[in-house]
Structure prediction request, 231 residues.
Amino acid sequence: AQTVTQSQPEMSVQEAETVTLSCTYDTSESDYYLFWYKQPPSRQMILVIRQEAYKQQNATENRFSVNFQKAAKSFSLKISDSQLGDAAMYFCAYRSPTSGTYKYIFGTGTRLKVLA
Amino acid sequence: EPEVTQTPSHQVTQMGQEVILRCVPISNHLYFYWYRQILGQKVEFLVSFYNNEISEKSEIFDDQFSVERPDGSNFTLKIRSTKLEDSAMYFCASSLSHGQGYEQYFGPGTRLTVT
Prediction:
């Protein structure tokens, strides 16, 4: 069975600085999808970025980018030029490509604090 | 931008009572999901629903739980005879499809407290 691990329960970053949130996963599948979701306080989870495992190029979305290391089964999220609005809980998630299996497998989350 | 909504935001119930958690998925979405997160633990998959039937469920989703799409807009999770360990945040999600790139959109959650 697949598992997702986020080893940093909480991280802090100074406004305008860069922070990296780590995520590792375990799977025997060769193709899969990985996601980072952001959950602001009392708000829903929103998708930050996604990565298809067959793509070698790391995904980027504006100030957010990932470092996808398939062999190491690592999927870290880098937030550049951190802003106060980036403060949230961040969840890493895995999804199998297997037909009929659409569920996400989540990590425990990392709470990011942005310091002014 | 369309959002998934959930009601109530917080539900308190006594052990043994039945609760219904409600969700309104995004209107053109076809796949619906429930997840839960016990405090301090991982977000866990409960069930997925498509074409008016359960397409997948986890081992957590036993006979105590049921889901329904009673009309064209609502998607509900019923928990019969609640237990203390059912206390958790319950998230509803929906997706347009299940293929590549069709990510799940999540609601803000319902916090269920069983006393």
